[in-house]
Amino acid sequence: MIGVFGGTFDPIHYGHLRAALEVQEQLNLTEVRLIPSATPPHRHQPFADAIMRQQMVTLAIQNQSGFICDSRELNRLGKSYMVDTLASLRQDFPTHPLLLFIGTDAFNHLTSWYQWQRLFDFAHVVVMTRPSFNQQKLEDFFTVRHTENKTELTTTLAGKLYFQAITQLDISATAIRKLIAQHHSPKYLLPDTVIDYIIQHTLYQQETHAH
């Protein structure tokens, strides 16, 4: 089973990394592919360019077994739609279950994603929740796909919806950028290798507003 974890990673931090690790261990994934978004369709453009964000992800995961920085969105023109990314991964891994990780906020807005129903043609969707999370009543589209049985994720290639409780660290890339712009240390919020890279390339010096 292959985990798929997309994001702007601007910059990548321990909130991302801890979530990816917990889902990898809970669901016994052979690998987790962290996929930096080149041109995110749903949000403002990232501060750091795509190559820099890819390099920061690579630095952050260099000692983590099973974590891979997947640059396919950086190599594709146009907006970085997840459905295209999953279709591309399915071509590369025709016999592996694919598990797309998303947070609860993303899940709440999933129906606004481009061709969102087709995500389930290519992958299972795993929603990372807080331990205290209470699932609201699901719409019919999701109800028929929802499972609480982990083994269903391994016995089918795609199509299921699964909720996985994880430790959610309250760390945001916006807050990290703000700290750096205010000349405060972001230490212990993200790996030292990434902090060194940010300093070396004088990233996020001008961040004065949140988005």
Could you provide a short overview of the structure?
The chain has 211 residues and is of the alpha/beta class. The chain is built from 9 helices and 6 strands; from the N terminus they run E-H-E-H-E-H-E-H-H-E-H-H-E-H-H.
List the strand order in the largest sheet: 3-2-1-4-5-6
Helical region count?
9
Sheet of most strands: 6 strands, parallel
CATH architecture: 3-Layer(aba) Sandwich
Task: Tell me the quaternary state.
Answer: single chain
Work out the helicity level: 25-40%
Query: Which percent range describes the beta-strand content?
Result: 15-25%
Mean of residue pLDDT? 91
SSE order: EHEHEHEHHEHHEHH
| Tally of structural domains | 1
Radius of gyration: 17 Å
Number of strands: 6
CATH homologous superfamily (4th level) name: HUPs
Q: What is the CA-CA span between the terminal residues?
A: 34 Å
The poorly predicted ranges are none
Classified by CATH, the class is: Alpha Beta
Shape: globular
CATH topology: Rossmann fold
Helix- and strand-based class?
alpha/beta
Fold topology:
Elements: E1 2-7, H1 14-26, E2 31-36, H2 50-60, E3 67-69, H3 82-92, E4 98-103, H4 104-108, H5 119-122, E5 124-129, H6 140-143, H7 151-155, E6 161-165, H8 173-181, H9 192-200
Parallel strand pairs: 1-2, 1-4, 2-3, 4-5, 5-6
Written account of the structure:
With 211 residues, the protein is α/β, with parallel strands linked by helices. It has nine helices and six strands, in the order βαβαβαβααβααβαα. The model has no long low-confidence stretch (mean pLDDT 91). The longest helix is centred in the N-terminal third of the chain and has 13 residues. Helix 2 runs antiparallel to helix 9. It has one domain: Rossmann fold. Strands 3-2-1-4-5-6 form a six-stranded parallel beta sheet, with helices on both faces.
